[in-house]
């Protein structure tokens, strides 16, 4: 078994998620290094790189934190906040690894594939073009199911309260999935004549577009829909390196 060093784990994730081949506004990969050079005992997994998460991770003895939303972007969103968060990580000697779009779209460990599996979909196809890349998945249920029942199933599995926009058919067969803030991909669901669009969050523009085009939407929570990918990575890293892994819950109602 490969030694569980920060360098080895980061390299493994880079290769598995094809980080260097996917264009993204996030600076994916190892964003913050630590002084730790030998083997580590605990790897943490979370959705967001924020100080509340860092503090929880510190109490759990996390030496490497793997997240979906990191602290370094192109262009940088907030340099003051970046500096504050990086200082907190370095103070706690904690490294930070980030996988944004590479985790959304991965065909095995990605957020969208994990959501498709949660729903038991078949006939899966890549769906939802974002910056030239299809990041989601579309599939079908074995038979027509009630929209409200699908929303209830998603809510139970993710421990989330779903917002349902019931503007289409009461019973659905097909659904497109894009986690997080993928509301801008609603037109793809309309063009492909899907019965429903599952996304993390839906703003006013998505509400009006869905209503005008008679498209069902299930918004299961930006945070909730992006917990599934990092949890899948936690299982992968535990198996590959024999290291302790922990999922750090935060902002679960968003």
Describe the structure.
By secondary structure, this protein is of the alpha/beta class. It has 2 domains: 6-100 and 227-246, NIF3 (NGG1p interacting factor 3)-like (Udp-n-acetylmuramoylalanyl-d-glutamate--2,6- Diaminopimelate Ligase, Chain: A, domain 1), CATH 3.40.1390.30; 105-222, 3-Layer(aba) Sandwich (Udp-n-acetylmuramoylalanyl-d-glutamate--2,6- Diaminopimelate Ligase, Chain: A, domain 1), CATH 3.40.1390.30. It contains 10 helices and 11 strands. A 6-stranded mixed β-sheet has the order 5-6-8-9-10-7, sandwiched between helices. A 5-stranded mixed β-sheet has the order 1-4-3-2-11, with helices on both faces. Helix 3 links the parallel strand 3 and strand 4. The longest helix is centred in the last third of the chain and has 15 residues, at 227-241. The chain is elongated. The termini are far apart. The model has no long low-confidence stretch (mean pLDDT 96).
């Amino acid at each position: 078994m490969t030694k569980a060093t920060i360098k080895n784990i980061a390299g493994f994730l880079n290769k598995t998620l094809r980080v260097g081949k996917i264009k993204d506004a996030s600076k994916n990969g190892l964003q913050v290094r630590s002084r730790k050079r030998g083997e580590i005992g605990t790897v943490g997994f979370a959705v967001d790189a924020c100080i509340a998460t860092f503090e929880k991770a510190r109490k759990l003895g996390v030496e490497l934190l793997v997240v979906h939303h990191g602290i370094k972007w192109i262009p940088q969103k907030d340099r003051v906040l970046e500096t504050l968060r990086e200082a907190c990580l370095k103070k706690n000697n904690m490294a930070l690894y980030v996988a944004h779009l590479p985790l959304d779209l991965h065909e095995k460990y990605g957020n969208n594939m994990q959501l498709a599996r949660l729903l038991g979909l078949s006939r899966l196809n890549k769906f939802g073009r974002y910056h030239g890349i299809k990041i989601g998945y579309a599939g079908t249920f074995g038979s027509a199911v009630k929209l409200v029942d699908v929303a209830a199933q998603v809510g139970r599995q993710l421990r989330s309260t779903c917002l349902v926009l019931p503007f289409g058919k009461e019973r659905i067969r097909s659904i497109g999935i894009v986690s997080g803030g993928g509301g801008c991909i609603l037109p793809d669901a309309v063009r492909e004549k899907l019965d429903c669009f599952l996304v993390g969050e839906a703003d006013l523009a998505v509400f009006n577009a869905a209503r005008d085009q008679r498209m069902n939407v299930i918004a299961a929570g930006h945070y909730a829909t992006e917990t599934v990918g990092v949890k899948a990575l936690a299982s992968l890293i535990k198996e590959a390196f024999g290291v302790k892994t922990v999922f750090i819950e935060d902002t679960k109602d968003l």
